[in-house]
Amino acid sequence: MLDQVKGGLIVSCQALENEPLHSSFIMGRMARAAAEGGAVGIRANTAADINEIAQNTDLPIIGIVKRDYEGSPIYITPTLREIEELAGTGCAMIAFDATDRPRYQGETLGDFFQKARAAAPGKLLMADIATLEEAVRAERLGFDCVSTTLMGYTAQSAGHNIADDDFSRLKAILAAVHIPVIAEGHVDTPAKARRCIELGAHAVVTGGAITRPQLITKAFTDAIYAT
Ligand SMILES: CC(=O)N[C@H](C=O)[C@@H](O)[C@H](O)[C@H](O)COP(=O)(O)O
After folding, report:
1. Within 6 Å (CB) of ligand 1, which residues are found?
2. Does the domain made of 2-225 have the CATH classification 3.20.20.70?
3. Whose CA is nearest to atom 10 of ligand 1?
4. From the CA of 12, how far away is ligand 1's center (Å)?
5. Which are the contacts of 214, defined by CB distance < 8 A and separation ≥ 6?
């Protein structure tokens, strides 16, 4: 799967319960549109959406399940329950939070990684990270790739954007780890996506700028009404 997506665009097709496009049917059609536009892969949330997307495209899917748990800020595939839900789908890769934040019931990332490997045989494992240190640790633990998904979304990385200073944080991660690095999060223009690939990112994941029309609309209205 990693060979298949090399140098290309993966489109994240997600709409949570509180979003206007929340619907597996719509995510399936979003994935079909992404395929028509030349995407090489899809990132999707929940087994239901993944199954629908698999009916609509042959593209490899990165699966996640977002779920909140009491006492932990981690919500991207946080426990074994979500890994098991994804193991039962046709997704090629499972992504989960690999940040340095407290996990549900105090579990360590290392322990969770081992359990995930055992519970999802045949699936690649992607580390969703926010910092350079987390990327290095993910490689050491044995993840198949890292993705910069959570950069800017954790206390440690607050205010960071992958594109800052000509992608300096992405460059530092690329220089430090040897497993494939996927550029994800705030890659919201074609020019940024191209730059990530030029710098050596294995692939780019773009979500909101393609599949969240409420955000796309807001960019237009903000510009029109700016004072
Ligand atoms: C932080 C978080 O929960 N990110 C999620 C991860 O799956 C998605 O909501 C994002 O859309 C995805 O990472 C792509 O990023 P962007 O939408 O910025 O292109």
Report:
1. 12, 14, 64, 149-150, 153, 184-188, 205-209
2. yes
3. 207
4. 7
5. 19, 20
CA of 151 to the centre of ligand 1 (A): 10
In this structure, the residue with its CA closest to atom 8 of ligand 1 is 207
Band of residue 87 on the pLDDT scale cut at 50, 70, 90: very high
**Ligand 1 atom nearest residue 208's Cα:** 17
* CA-wise closest residue to 127 among 150, 110, 147, 142: 147
Atom of ligand 1 nearest to the CA of 215: 17
Check: CB of residue 162 under 8 Å from CB of residue 187. yes
Q: Report which protein residue has its CA nearest ligand 1's atom 15.
A: 185
| pTM greater than 0.95 | yes
Q: Quick one: average pLDDT of 129-152?
A: 98
* CA 98 to chain CA mean position, Å: 12
- Give residue 50's pLDDT: 98
d(CA 27, CA 197): 26
Quote the ipTM score: 0.98
Strands 145-147 and 181-184, how do they pair?
A: parallel
CB atoms within 10 A of CB 96: 24
Written as six digits, the tokens of 184 are 């994800």
